[in-house]
Structures are given as structure tokens and as C-alpha cells.
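Workshop exercise sheet. Pairs work together: one partner reads the sequence aloud, the other fills in the structure field after running the prediction. Swap roles for the next sheet.
Pair: D.N. / O.F.
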Amino acid sequence: MSKQIQRLTGMHDVLPDERRYWDTISRAAEEVTRRFGFQRIDTPILEATELFARGVGEGSDFFVQKEMYTIVEADGSSITLRPEFTAGFVRAYISNGLHNWSQPVKLYTIGPSFRRERPQAGRLRQHSQFNCEIMGEEDPAADVEVMMVAMSLYRELGFKGLVFQLNSTGCPVCKPGYIRELVAFLDNHYDRLADIDKERLTKNPLRVLDSKAPGMEALLAGAPHIADYLCDDCREHFADVRSLLDVLGQSYTINFRLVRGIDYYTKTVFEVWQEGIGAQAALCGGGRYDGLSEDIGGPPTPGVGFGSGIERVMLGMKEQGIEPAAATPLPILVAHFGGATKTAAVRLVYRLRDAGIGARLAFARGSRSLKSQMREADHHGARYVLILGEDEITRGVVAVKPLVEGEQQSQVALDEIVGWLAERITS
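Structure field:
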């Protein structure tokens, strides 16, 4: 016997029971974005590697240096499976002339992304994301709008007890000064840093603030806060974001260690936290990326958005006991006894489907007991079993066996059965 081929590490088969969660989340996301005035866009899974190297940033070890799936083509060009959505959104905005549209442009998508990282709860090497972006707008109200898309989605799904984690990462004017102060502080405690944080210190010092290494919680409590180094523009922007959240009565926590893992963020960064999802509390994360368009060769374009992993949201639903919508069973099973009765059953089941009535055919290569077919109907939650035997075919009728208490078995003419059922069920 050949060796069984296994699923790749970090990949996941989404079976029907889990798919119900996915469909519930997707429908809620589409409904919320509709109310907020967003339009759907779908970008390619494959992009030029340079898009992420320039857009995400060389300092973002999270993606570029360690965790991207990159392919070198025969002609020497390099392409990459998208590790995140925002760079592709901005590339599409530039490539398709969306900067010539009435601004701002409000877009969303749902699709897979790929990261070569250690699989963990809610985060796989292939995972699906709901992403929402506003491009072409500097107003802090746009930051709040994408934040509230996320919060509205989770409320729509039935989540309780969520809170925003909020910070500002400054801008090219004030961020360098803060980074110098942070590096000086960390250099003074260099011997207390884990190896990964020593590496981050040389490439992207802000990422040290996100360290989970033992002892870092106490060490970073004494680190300088970026809020003390913001320029006037960033300080005003951050104050406006907080003021608007206050107007909405939306609670938030200022988290000076929240920096996100990608270089392109400026000013606002945020996450929505729920306790209990493995070692990670965030249902989503995002922020403002005002310089990203210029980094990848486009015109100056402010932008703000977030990404929410479908698998992470599904885990959160299970954690809070939120059940997805139940699958609607097909209301009809057509039973037969082989031979001419099977031919008639196949003809009938397709008549029903063409009329918009969901129907299941009882499969059998030969004859099959009615008792077995009734068990199948009961297992799948059918409401009626339509029975076609030789006697029924001769008389031009179909026997109708209800599986719902209170309804009586009857016989209906074959040429009237579609209308008879249509009056009683919706598929």
C-alpha cells in the first residue's frame, strides 16, 4: 500500500461544521461593510516580492526575512504568496487609478494569506482574513470608522466584553526621535534582552515593545512612552481619535507597547482584544499607513485599515459559546426501488430542483429497502419522503410520507406534486 499523503503543517481542511462559522462571519462582514458604505475588491494571491519588501519594510522581520513564501521564476523574477493584504490594496489603488476616483475610497475583501510561521491557535500558515481599508483620507474620523467596522462586526456576531487597545506610533517627523530614546534605554539593559529582541533592536526597535520574552514585562514598564515624543500633528490626531471614541461611548485602553509588526504604520494603531484565544488576545489589528503609497511608487495617499483573521474570530465565537447559523436541511428525499422506479425518481428530483425546491435522491445501484431510505431521510432532516414504486408509476402518482408530526401521508398526482410542495415548504 502506498504511503498516505498528509496535510501540510500549518494548513487546515475546513469541514462543513466549521464552514458554518466561516459563512456566518462572511455574511456578517458583508452586511456591516454595506452599512458603512464599503465596496468589495479582490486582489491576486501572488504579487511581486518587491511589493512586500518595499511596502512592508525590510525591518519587518515578521514577514520579509523569515515568513514569506517566495518563488523565483525561470526568468529570475521573484513572486510571493501574499503574507498580508494592505500592500496589495495600495498597489491595486495605484495600478487601477483609484486615486482619480472621488476620495476617500472605501474597500474590503475576504480571502487567504500565507505566512511561514509556527502554527498556533487561530493562526495557520494559510489563513483567511477580512480586510477593510479607507484610502485617500487624513481625517481621524476615518481611523474611528475602520475601528468601528471591526467592533460592529463582532457585535453583530454576538461577542461580549471586547475592548480596543490603542496607541500612536508617530510619523516620520517624531518617530525617529522616539526610537533613539528607546534604543538608548534598551542598550542600557542589553544583557536582559532575549536573542530575538537583540536582533530586533538592530532592525526594528519598536518590535521589542511587543516582546513576549520572560522578564520583559517588568523591564518595559520603565521604557519611554511614544506619547511623550509625538509632534503637534500626531498629538492632535491621536487626541481627535480618542475624543471621537469618547463621543461614541466606546471604551479603549491606551497601550504604549502596541506597535504592530509592520514598518508602514504611522500614527494610529489599534487591536480589538478578547481574552482566552490561546496565548493571543487580539481578534484583529490595524492602523494608519500614510506613507505606504509613496514607498511602492505611488502618489502621496493617506490610508487606514485593519485585518481580521477568520480562524481567530471562529475561535473567539467558540470561546464565547456563539453558535453559527444552522445549515438548512433539504426538505425532500425521493425514494425508489430500482429499475423503472429509479428512472422516475431521477426525473422527479430534477423537476423539483429546477422549480427551486431542494431535494435529495436516495442512491442505490439496485433495489434498496424503504426502511433504509427512511432512515436516510430522517438523518438529513427531510420534511417529506416522496415514494415512487411500480404501483405509483402505473397510476401516475407519488406517495408522500411526512416526517413532521401532525401531517398525514397522502398521494399526489405526479404532474401536481411540484405545486403541492411549493405551497408547503420553502427550500
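Discussion prompt: The chain has two domains: 16-170+253-319, 332-422. What would you look at next?
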